[in-house]
Amino acid sequence: MLSWLAEQRIAEAMRQGEFDHLPGEGKPLKIEDLSGVPEELRMAYKVMKNAGYVPEEIQLRHDLVRLDDLIAACGDEPELVSLQRKRSEQQLRLNMLADQRGLYHNPAFQQYEGAIRQRLE
């Protein structure tokens, strides 16, 4: 019943043009990919992100993916060695943070451990 009422009000607002000329009209939506975050933690991560806070381990994971992309595209041997060293340092920092915060002992981590390790390797 409630969803029907909502649909009716939305349809009426559309007929009256209340959705015309809104900011971002005609532009693609920015969809956040939280597929790598366990479902029970997604809301907390979204709240932190909206507040401008990104946990260090999330930033490190993002950096690792970026470094992996750079390594895959690198054709210069000295640069490749430098990128691989940076990646090793970032991976070590992530492992240290995980140990300090007990992330590997978290039930959510244990459930997703295989996928997480595969993604980080």
Structural account:
- Helix 3 (56-73) packs antiparallel against helix 4.
- The chain has 5 helices and no strands.
- The chain has 121 residues and is mostly helical.
- The mean pLDDT is 82.
- Helices cover 69% and strands 0% of the residues.
Explain briefly what this protein structure is:
With 121 residues, this protein is mostly helical. The protein is 69% helix and 0% strand.
Helix content: 55-70%
Number of helices: 5
Fraction of residues in β-strands: under 5%
Query: What does the radius of gyration come to?
Result: 21 Å
Largest sheet: none
Number of strands: 0
Global structural class? mainly alpha
**Overall mean confidence score, pLDDT:** 82
Shape: elongated
Taking pLDDT < 50 over at least 5 consecutive residues as the criterion, the unreliable ranges are none
H-E order: HHHHH
Termini separation comes to 49 Å
